Amino acid sequence: MTSAASVDVVIAGGGLVGASLAIALARSGLSVHVVDPVTAEAPAQPSYDDRSTALAPTSRRILEALGLWSAIAPEIGPIRRIHVSDQGGFGMTRMDAAREGLDALGYVAPNRVLGRALRGALERLPGTVQTVTDSVATVHTDEDTARVELGSGASLSARLLVAADGTHSALREHLGLQVRETDYGQHGVVANVTPAREPAGEAFERFTPEGPLALLPLPGGHCSLVWTVAPDHAEALTAMGEAAFLAALQDAFGYRLGRFLRVGHRVSYPLRLSRSDRRVTERGVVIGNAARTLHPVAGQGFNLALRDVAELAERVHGAARAGGDPGGGQLLAAYAVARQPDHRRVTAFTDALVRLFSNRVPGLRLARNAGLMGMELLPGPRDALMRQAMGRSGRLPRLARGLPLESTHG
Ligand SMILES: Cc1cc2nc3c(=O)[nH]c(=O)nc-3n(C[C@H](O)[C@H](O)[C@H](O)COP(=O)(O)OP(=O)(O)OC[C@H]3O[C@@H](n4cnc5c(N)ncnc54)[C@H](O)[C@@H]3O)c2cc1C
């Protein structure tokens, strides 16, 4: 057996989630290696593509506490209002930041901007955190170590292995963690579009018989579109000419923002729910899309993962401060228990939205329109929906409360 370089933590995957965790662990004093075959600068880096991500206010606090927000803030669009409606139905509801005494309900950040901020921060980290351009080929764990074999033939031995290698995580399988999948039979067509009227901080969630259509406000009068449709329709929408696409979008969305004038590069993603019921094992933990991939209807995937990052980083910092083991069984078990309620809530909330609002059954349609009207009139259910969407439900880790990890627990 060849000798392996020994480090404290190996993070397999330097996408949005793996990179965020590396930054959160930077001041722990532990040696951290982030391994990813795709460099952050590469155009093919899948985490930092043409999509935009809606960030909840708790995610803003985490990014602020990690020192990333100032690099992101100049290029984001605040969400001041959300307009929810049903195509061809009477129901609608509005959520308004001013009415709640808030600056914004959330923020829309282009993934490229997030990628640039993460990359810049990774480059400035102390020497204890290193990025390695390689892939993790296999991993063997036992009570004391995770032994990680890289594609290049090199190997690393770590006290904690974090699998942040995305939806099709090979590491999850190597760690023996099962995944359950629900295929929604839908694709998300993603593009930036320019309407005649500026969205001025208004986000739109419109439920159509094929699935939800979301338009999120970006700076410069543009919007980020995620349009959920049947797979063959998605193929047609990405292949058709610009004028035909804009006409189809106009038909589905209506004229609340005037005419649609332009559309950028269009990409289609298959949408499914995949979740690993167990997310920790001996010396290993899965996070981000590797642990749970959600339908983007509620914009929760990265927000949920950032709260995982905050919780895990808090516990690993605590262990490092106490001279303890950052990958010990008790630490990982406690982490899994602490994160379970948030995972359950967010998954159930997202799945219910998809099922309720991607349905042509007439009785259900009437019920959801009545539900939307009810939410407009009754603050209770609307507030609960808002708390969930804003990531404010349940106990929050320190970073999510804007507190640094270096000081003692609070
Ligand atoms: C259309 C769409 C819209 C979305 N909108 C929102 C939103 O508004 N709000 C929100 O919160 N979330 C949103 N999400 C979810 C969000 O994009 C994901 O939660 C996030 O991208 C997950 O990042 P990740 O780092 O876990 O995985 P990925 O982005 O897939 O990154 C995985 C990384 O692992 C690397 N890798 C793969 N295999 C290996 C290996 N063997 N060894 C080492 N490295 C490896 C890859 O190169 C990659 O860099 C959306 C998703 C979609 C599809």
The count of strands amounts to 20
- Secondary-structure arrangement, i.e. CATH architecture of the domain at 5-75 and 110-181 and 273-358: 3-Layer(bba) Sandwich
Please name the CATH topology of the domain at 5-75 and 110-181 and 273-358.
FAD/NAD(P)-binding domain
- For the record, what is the CATH homologous superfamily label of the domain at 5-75 and 110-181 and 273-358? FAD/NAD(P)-binding domain
Low-pLDDT parts are none
State the helical fraction.
Answer: 25-40%
Main sheet attributes: strand count, strand direction, barrel closure: 9 strands, mixed
Average pLDDT, all residues:
87
Strand-pairing-aware structural class: alpha+beta
Shape: globular
Number of helices: 11
The CATH C-level class name of the domain at 5-75 and 110-181 and 273-358? Alpha Beta
Q: How is the quaternary structure best described?
A: single chain
In whole angstroms, the N-to-C terminal distance is 45 Å
- Give the strand content: 25-35%
Ligands (ions, cofactors included): flavin-adenine dinucleotide
Backbone CA Rg: 21 Å
